[in-house]
Input
Amino acid sequence: MYTSYFGLEDKPFSIAPNPDYLFMSDRHREALNHLTYGLGDTGGFVLLTGEVGTGKTTISRRLMENLPENTQAAFILNPTLSSQELLATICDELKIRYRKTGATLKTLTDKIQQKLLKNHNDDINTLLIIDEAQHLQPEVLEQLRLLTNLETNTKKLLQVILIGQPELQQLLQRRDLRQLAQRITARYHLLPLNRQEVEQYLKHRLSVAKCFRNIFDKSGINAIHKTCKGIPRLMNLLAERALMNAYNSNNAVVNRKIVLQAAHDALGDEFQVTNWWQTPLFKYASFASLLTIFLAVGIWWGIQFTHSQNAADTVLIPAQQTINGESNGSIKKEEINSEKVELVNHEGLGEKLTEPNFVASEIANTDKTSAQLTFERQQSRNVISDNNAQASNKLSNESLNIADNNASNIQKQQSPEQLVDNQISSQSPSSAVNKDFVVEATDGVSDELLASFQSAIEETKQFDDASEQESQQANSGLTPLTQMPVWVQDGVPSIQFEMHIYASDGQGWVRVNGRDRYEGDYIGRELLLNEILPQKVVLSFRGEKFTMAALSSWN
Output
């Protein structure tokens, strides 16, 4: 097989939940910590959910391996049972003797309660783990809740871990199961692995099988991540098939091509990776881009065609130019070959156009060819355009001179105090907030005005130093509520934390005073929930931040 070909001592990608191959990513480590924390002295129900194949069962097996010696655990894999069958299965797992025939719910319940009391007297904790709990019927869940009613003043005698798919969360939202939902002390939803964790997962599995080289290259790892969406069970199926294909084709490294072929063989066509240029989004974007280009080209061509038609049909020459409100000449109009041409008398050209000989020559030359007439029109247009440009430049220069003179007159009329105000306001914002800024004396400014500016700068500097000191104090370590000032402890209302859910992506929540609260919610009057940490929460009351331990209370 391929194990000897790649130098493996075992099949590293078996779908069996072997705890030796468990890859403890950050998400799996958090899930295991939540399960361990939920099995503390308080007891009750602990909930672990996740998509199919994310590693929930493997985590539960790792938990059972790390249980203390004084713990008796019952593990139920098939929860599609009735209430009586579930109690009988619990008796079998806990090694409780009972009559197989004629056993009623009361008989089985009494047997289980006697066993729980005996374990408690012997200082033994009793744990019940139910996998695939989303298949439990509501009446069976209610029977489990009744079993947990047996308790002492400090702990529950039976601790239950429910492991299931996301449908289990929807099941517990039923109104008839709200009593059970309120007894869940810890919840965690296991998410798939990301790209970096997928690479670490493959290397971990290979290293457990005594292979320490990179069998999967980067392209193959990317293809596995895109195809399996970070679900470990699908990754095991795909990696197993990819190693088989690489062995059959005598390839020492698994690349993207081999992974895609393995996805088609092992997972079906719906799991095959689609190239980016074959995605519907890329096709729609390409069509929209081409349509936009065609529209832009059409609009540009239409504008250019319109301008060319207007230039060919009519030549328009300004009839009159006015500079400084004075007219420079008159207008001469002649009709040549049934076309109207407006000629401008502008500076020196105006004298030529008003001469009778010029008009007569234009009329006499009406029999010239169209090419000659076009050339003469172009020459006249060039001369007139040059004269217009000179006149525009003259107007611009005169306007600038007038604006400079007005600004100079306004500046002369300002007082020395106004000059200082203008100089300070023209500075950049960065220089205005400089702590070391010092006002220097200027001609015409009194000493009292300078002293006022200097005093304002000193007050600003003191305010900035105080603000910086307050910011440093705010970033210092937080203090528990029991160590806060008396006015804070007396002002904080009663708090009862009944449930504590922490998640690294910021989606954690707590159940406090009978209601679910998230980060940023107000628990009571002026009491804000700032942050949810693994073992505590951060609160703020009237601007003062402090911490409280998870599942604690304050009266």
Notes: The longest helix spans residues 370-413.
